[in-house]
Amino acid sequence: MIVSTQKPLENIISALDGGSRVFIIGCAKCATVCKSGGEEEVFRMQEALAEAGKEITGTIVIDETCHMLRTSRDLRSRQEQVNQADFLLVLSCGAGIQSVAEASDTKVVAGTDSKFLGNIRRFGQFEQRCSLCGDCRLNETGGVCPVTVCAKGLLNGPCGGMVDGACEVNGDSPCAWVTIYERLERQERVEQLHGTTPARDFIHEATPGSLKLGR
Amino acid sequence: MPSLLARKLAAHEFVITAEVAPPRGCDLTPFLHSAAYLAPYADAVNVTDNQGANMRMSPLSAAAALVREGIEPIMQLTCRDRNRLALQSDLLGAAALGVHNILALTGDGIGCGDHRQGRSVFDLDSVQLLQTITAMNAGCDMNGAPLAGATSFFAGAAAAPEVEPFGVTLPKLGKKVASGARYFQTQAVFNPEKLSAFCDAVTPSGVQVIAGILVLKSAKMAEFINQHIPGLRIPLTVIERLRAAADPATEGIEIAVEMALHSRTVCSGIHIMSMGRDEVVPCIAAVVRSL
User: Fold this and answer.
1) Which transformation does this protein catalyse, written as a reaction (chain B) (predicted)?
2) Are the beta carbons of B127 and A157 separated by less than 8 Å?
């Protein structure tokens, strides 16, 4: 899922400067799970903005704001409230915010910062394991991604900063290459680490990405 | 091979290298003064590359200035601040300006330095950088496209003989040698047995070991290093020894000399990290050379 966090309220209020009427949009998927833009957060935002003197013309929590056609359709179903608003405040990931921006000419305010593609450790605890590099090498690294979990994204083994198995950059975390080595050792295939991995081909990470499935 | 260091190592002369940091400004005077002071005692002088991710003059410019003064540099080159084009550009520039020794490094994380908001690059890692240097020595860029003339670099790499778990680092050390590293300049060593074991593990591949000798001044300095310098861990026994000493600065030199003398028996050279005390280098060099 896409992990996002809400921007500080004062930043949101400052972005809403120059208008008093606000329509708030949340997302029923990722932003709900990471509590940045679900029903509960949309309701709280409504109260906070009302307290700050804003008029809320309406709210909606869309089932996947990243779904562009659905977002457009759901906003049309609330067209009157949307049209009354000076701003559409969106509490979803950056993808969802842009679905909204494309669906309406009303000014869009991003109420969140999108952080990473996250695994869920437990309720309210998220970890980045995949950085969508477009060229998966998990088959070679025992199912641990060095591009993401190694803070330097190194492909050929640990850097000189590893001390007592800990990462130089994030001292509380184990070195990704220690994890990779130990796992491959348990699986009796540590010899996989002896071949040199060539430099990455960043063509796989070119932005903006797009994919159209053939029929 | 134009590298004097390469020739001395090939002849099995015990080499001594020292270290100078490029200036944080455009005046080279103190840098050249320090290098000129060290040069009579050192076979080559390392020029650091934004060490600790702290911004300084480029090692290419500073190393070229040493060449002009007749001092043999080892240019440290990290992957943190340059992508593959910039690394190769700097390497071509280094070759053109007479810089022949390269120490290929990953680079400390940008978060430990003075530009923490910056983006680190790591387009290549140290192994891939070594492969690139090897390709350039064969007259090609990293993609195999021909260059107008081949470089003749003597490439080395870093190693940490005392790191735990050591086994995890072994495959990468093997890759560094396979990719063209001819010598390891090691992280600071304090444990003679671990240095011996390290040499036993890596030298059968033909690589030569230059042991890192760190000259400590006090227990406080050692503790600071343990907390703030990536990849360096000074053992408690050493810290206690410094704490118990009547004159910790002299004790620090004594510890360094002991390690240097052990290195003389098991490896090909020492790399003295004087931590700003250049005046200790002649004294350690004299002891080692007197054997």
Assistant:
1) (6S)-5-methyl-5,6,7,8-tetrahydrofolate + NAD(+) = (6R)-5,10-methylene-5,6,7,8-tetrahydrofolate + NADH + H(+)
2) yes
Contact A45, A77 (CB under 8 A): no
Whether B157 is in a domain gets the answer yes
Q: A155 and B187 in contact by Cβ < 8 A?
A: no
Sequence length of chain A is 215
Q: Is residue B81 part of a domain?
A: yes
Rounded Cα gap, residues B172 and B290, in angstroms: 36
CA distance B46 to B75: 6
Could you please state the CATH topology (level 3) that the domain comprising A2-116 is classified under: Rossmann fold (3.40.50)
Number of domains in chain B: 1
B49 and B102 in contact (C-beta within 8 Å)? no
Domain residue spans in chain A? 2-116, 133-198
Please provide the size of chain B in residues.
291
Rg (CA), chain B: 18
Residue whose C-alpha is closest to residue B103's, from B169, B161, B45: B45
How far is A199 from chain B, CA to nearest CA, in Å?
6
Q: How far apart are CA B63 and CA B75, in angstroms?
A: 6
Express each pLDDT in A130-182 by its tens digit. Answer: 999 999 999 999 999 999 999 999 999 999 999 999 999 999 999 999 999 99
Q: Which of A186, A11, A180 is nearest to A111 (CA)?
A: A11
**How distant is the Cα of B266 from the closest Cα of chain A, in angstroms?**
22
CB contact under 8 Å between B123 and A200, yes or no, is: yes
Name the residue type at position B131. Q
- Regarding an ipTM greater than 0.90, the answer is yes
Evaluate whether residue B237 is within a structural domain: no
